[in-house]
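Quick one: examine this chain and its backbone structure tokens and tell me how the chain folds. Here goes:
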Amino acid sequence: MVVEMSKGTRIIRINEEIKKELSEIIRNEIKDPRIKDTLVSVVNVDTSSDLKICKIYISVMGDKEQKENVIEGLKNASGFIRREIARRINLRNTPEFIFKLDDSIEYSIHLSRIMDEISHNSGDDTHD
């Protein structure tokens, strides 16, 4: 049981390190205008226990076309990203990255606006 715990903890640490470094790479290293000119956040990183695959969940503030462009830009830059991650993080194998859109931040903002609107409108009720 202890072995499984430490293995899980190791993957959690690897995920956090990849998330931190990837955020830095996206923010400062990638020059692709599809990515550079858009607000992009790394929401979550999920690496398989064998370190072969790493799913990267990305949030993009923008319309559907911008989101698709960012994912396409990240896919095009995946070789560069993989080399940078390998250089920055000491792993025996650097995983293959799969980029996926995550709309949870945008959805939260949408819900927050709806709640604000409801609360604002309920304050307007007047009873005679």
